[in-house]
Design brief:
nine-stranded mixed β-sheet, eight-stranded mixed β-sheet, alpha/beta, 17 strands, 15% strand, 22 helices, single chain
C-alpha cells in the first residue's frame, strides 16, 4: 500500500484563488518515481455549471495523490464555465481542456474524456461534487490490492444543493462488495441499492474503455452500466466518506415523470438485454443469468413506473391488515384458479357450475378469514390505544402533581424576583438555585434520556485504573467522579484516537493521553488572542510532559473548525466547550462528523447551571436518545447502540442497590447547579 504521510495536511491547508500556482503539487509530481505512483486521469465532462464548478475543481486539484492528469471536456457551455476552466488551467499544467463547438450530449461527453485519458487508472467527476484530498490515495491501493477488481469506491455523503445533509450512503454488512461474487453483486444492484454511485469511483482504464462501448443511452443507464461491470469484475470498497455528492431533487422528479411515460420501460428492458448480451467484458457463461436479471430489473422498474398504483394496493392491503405482497399473491392465485377452472370446464372435465361454485366457496372462505383477522387486529389495536391513552393521562397527572408539589413546597419561587428587596442576598441566591434545579428536572423528564450506572453501560469498567489527578478539586463539585468516568471510558474502549472540545488547563487532555499510552489526543480551543482570559492557563498541565508528544493542540473557534480532514477518525470524542445553546448544537454536530463506526461521544455539564445545553438536548434527544450516567453531569452516545432497547449489564448486589430498588423515586443529588 502506498504511504503518503504528510501530504494530506500540506495540500489541504490554506485557501487559493483560481489561477495561482501550485508549486507543491508540481514539485511532488516531478520528484517521485511514477512507478510507485501510476498516472491517474480525472475526466470532468461539463456543460453549464459555473455556479459550483470552481469549488469542485478546487477539490480535484488539491488531491494529495502526486501523479494526476485532469481532462475537462466543455460541451459547448454558454454560462462562463469555459472561463473558469481556463483560469484553473493557467495555474496548473496538469489540466487539459477540450472545447466542443456543439453540444453532443452527456454520454458522448463522458466518452470524450475517457478516450483522451493517458493513465492506467481513470475516474469521472461531476461539476457539483466535492472530493476529500485523499480520495484517490485511499481508493487506488484498495483497487490495486485486488487484481480482479475493476472499480473502487468509498462511502458518499449526499447533500442538497443548499448544503443541507440528505443522506449517507455506506456499503457495509451484507452490502459490502469486497470479495462478493458476481451474481450476488448483480442481484444487489438490481434490488435498488445505490451501487450506481460506483460510476464515480476509480476504474482500471482498459476495462472501462471496453465496457464503455456498450454504455446504455436510456433512462437509468448508469445502473445498467454498473450491472455490466458487476458481471465483468469485482468491486473494491473503502468504508470512509471521501466524496460529497450533490443530490438534485428536481432530477428525481424528472426521472419519475419520464418513467411514467409509455414505452420507457420497454426501451429500458431492451437496452439492458442488449448491454449484457453485447458486452465484450462479460464472460459468455455469466450472460446465462440474463433471464433472471431481466426479471429482477423488471421488478425494480415496476415500482418506479406504477408508484401510484402500488400505493393504492398498499392502502387496500392495510384495510385487511395484510402485507401488499400477500394481497397481490392472493389476487394472482385467484386469477390462476379462475383460468384453470375455466379450462377444465371447457374440456368438460368438470361442469361450469361446479367450477364457479368451488371457486366462489374457496374465496368466500378466504374473505371470511381476512375479515375476521381484520376485526381481531382492530379490536386489539383499540385496546392498545386505550391503554396508551390511559398511560398518557397518568403521566400528565403525575407531571401536574410534580409541578404543584414544587410550587407548594417553595412558594417563594414565583415571587423571588419581586421580593428580592425583602430577602437577604443569600436567600435570593438559594431560591434562584432551586428554580434552576426544578427547571432542569422538568427538562430531564421531557427528554428521551435513559439514566444508567456507568458499570451497567460499560461492563467491566470498574477494573480500569484512573489517576486521581484527573479530578479538579478547585471546582467545588459535590461529586468528583465525572472526569474519572471520562478517562476510564476512553481507556475501557481502547481508544487510539481521541478528540476534545475545550482545552482550558489540559487536565482531561493530559489524562486521556496518559491513560492511553498508545493513543493520540486532539484538543480544540479558541486561539489565545481571542480568549485572553483563558490564554495564560491553556494547556499548562501537559506542556513539557512526555504525553505532549501525543497531543495535538488546535487553536480555532469551533464554529469555524473544518472537520473534513478528520471525519470518522476518532474512537472517542469529549464535548466540554461553551455551553450556550448554539455552540452546543454546533459542537454536537461536529462530534458526530468526527466519530468513527462504533465510537463513543461524551458531553459534560448536563446540569441545572447549563440552561442552553439542557434545552438543546431536550430537543435533540427526541430523535436521538442518549444515556445519562447517574449522579453525574455526563451524557453518552455509543455508535450502533439502540439506547432505549439496549440490554444493560448487571450491577453486583449490595445493600445500596437494595435500598434504591425499595425507593424507586429516590431523588439523586443534583450538583453543579
Amino acid at each position: 500500500m502506498v504511504e503518503l504521510a504528510g501530504l494530506d495536511q500540506a495540500v489541504f491547508g490554506g485557501t487559493r484563488e483560481p489561477g495561482t500556482s501550485r508549486p507543491f503539487a508540481n514539485q511532488v509530481a516531478g520528484n517521485l518515481n511514477s512507478a510507485h505512483f501510476p498516472l491517474v486521469t480525472i475526466g470532468l465532462p461539463v456543460f453549464n455549471g459555473a455556479t459550483t464548478l470552481a469549488a469542485a475543481l478546487e477539490t480535484l486539484v488539491r488531491q494529495d495523490y502526486p501523479n494526476l492528469q485532469i481532462i475537462i471536456s466543455d460541451n459547448a457551455s454558454t454560462d462562463g464555465t469555459l472561463a473558469i476552466c481556463e483560469e484553473f488551467a493557467r495555474g496548473d499544467p496538469r489540466i487539459r481542456i477540450i472545447r466542443k463547438q456543439v453540444n453532443e450530449g452527456a454520454v458522448a461527453n463522458f466518452r470524450t474524456v475517457l478516450d483522451a485519458a493517458e493513465g492506467e487508472f481513470f475516474m469521472w467527476a461531476a461539476a457539483d461534487d466535492y472530493w476529500y484530498p485523499h480520495f484517490i490515495s485511499r481508493l487506488l491501493p484498495a483497487l490495486r490490492a485486488d487484481s480482479a477488481a475493476g472499480v473502487a469506491m468509498c462511502a458518499v455523503d449526499r447533500r442538497l444543493p443548499d448544503g443541507a445533509p440528505f443522506d449517507l450512503i455506506r456499503f457495509i454488512g451484507d452490502m459490502n462488495p469486497n470479495g462478493m461474487g458476481h451474481l450476488r453483486l448483480l442481484g444487489k444492484i438490481l434490488s435498488g441499492a445505490k451501487y450506481n454511485l460506483f460510476i464515480y469511483g476509480l476504474f482500471r482504464k482498459p476495462l472501462l474503455q471496453r465496457a464503455m462501448r456498450h454504455f446504455p443511452v436510456v433512462l437509468g443507464g448508469d445502473r445498467q452500466f454498473i450491472a455490466q461491470m458487476a458481471l465483468a469484475c469485482r468491486f473494491a470498497y473503502v468504508d470512509e466518506i471521501l466524496l460529497t455528492r450533490t443530490h438534485q431533487p428536481k432530477n428525481f422528479d424528472a426521472y419519475m415523470e419520464t418513467m411514467a411515460k409509455r414505452g420507457t420501460l420497454r426501451r429500458q428492458m431492451i437496452s439492458f438485454a442488449g448491454t449484457i448480451l453485447g458486452s465484450s467484458v462479460i464472460p459468455w457463461w455469466r450472460k446465462a443469468c440474463l433471464p433472471v436479471a431481466l426479471m429482477q430489473y423488471f421488478m425494480l422498474s415496476i415500482p418506479q413506473k406504477q408508484f401510484k398504483r402500488l400505493n393504492m394496493i398498499k392502502i387496500i392491503a392495510r384495510k385487511f391488515f395484510i402485507s401488499p405482497r400477500s394481497l397481490v399473491m392472493a389476487i394472482g392465485l385467484f386469477g390462476v384458479s379462475a383460468v384453470i377452472g375455466g379450462f377444465l370446464a371447457y374440456l368438460n372435465v368438470i361442469s361450469s357450475e361446479f367450477a364457479v361454485g368451488t371457486l366462489s366457496a374457496a374465496w368466500l372462505l378466504v374473505a371470511a378469514v381476512l375479515l375476521n383477522r381484520g376485526w381481531a387486529i382492530r379490536a386489539q389495536k383499540s385496546i392498545e390505544r386505550k391503554l396508551s391513552g390511559n398511560d398518557q393521562e397518568i403521566n400528565r397527572t403525575l407531571r401536574e402533581l410534580r409541578y404543584l408539589s414544587d410550587t407548594l413546597l417553595h412558594p417563594d419561587l414565583a415571587v423571588a424576583r419581586t421580593k428580592s428587596n425583602q430577602l437577604s442576598d443569600h436567600a435570593v441566591q438559594r431560591i434562584e438555585k432551586h428554580r434552576k434545579v426544578v427547571e432542569f428536572v422538568r427538562n430531564l423528564e421531557d427528554s428521551r434520556i435513559r439514566e444508567v450506572y456507568v458499570q451497567e453501560l460499560f461492563p467491566g469498567i470498574e477494573k480500569e485504573s484512573v489517576p486521581i489527578g484527573v479530578i479538579n478539586e478547585l471546582t467545588g463539585h459535590a461529586n468528583k467522579t465525572d472526569m474519572l468516568y471520562v478517562s476510564a471510558v476512553a481507556k475501557h474502549i481502547g481508544a487510539k484516537k481521541m478528540f476534545e472540545f475545550g482545552t482550558y488547563m489540559g487536565r482531561t487532555t493530559f489524562h486521556l493521553a496518559h491513560n492511553n499510552p498508545d493513543g493520540q489526543v486532539f484538543t480544540l480551543n479558541l486561539p489565545p488572542e481571542r480568549d485572553p482570559r483563558y490564554a495564560p492557563y491553556m494547556g499548562v498541565l501537559f506542556k513539557g510532559r512526555e504525553e505532549e508528544k501525543r497531543i495535538t493542540q488546535i487553536h480555532s473557534d469551533s464554529r469555524e473548525f473544518d472537520t473534513a480532514p478528520y471525519r470518522q477518525q476518532f474512537d472517542f470524542v469529549f464535548v466540554d466547550g461553551d455551553h450556550s445553546y448554539d455552540l452546543v448544537k454546533n459542537d454536537t454536530q461536529k462530534a458526530f462528523e468526527l466519530i468513527k463506526q462504533g465510537g463513543v461521544i461524551m458531553w459534560h455539564d448536563y446540569a441545572p447551571k447549563s440552561d442552553g445545553l439542557v434545552r438543546f438536548f431536550k430537543e435533540f434527544t427526541q430523535d436521538r436518545p442518549l444515556f445519562r450516567i447517574r449522579s453525574t453531569c455526563l451524557l453518552v452516545y455509543i455508535d450502533g447502540v439502540d439506547v432505549m432497547n439496549h440490554k444493560l449489564g448487571n450491577l453486583p448486589h449490595s445493600l445500596e442497590l437494595e435500598y434504591r430498588e425499595e425507593n424507586p423515586y429516590l431523588v439523586e443529588s443534583i450538583y453543579h447547579s
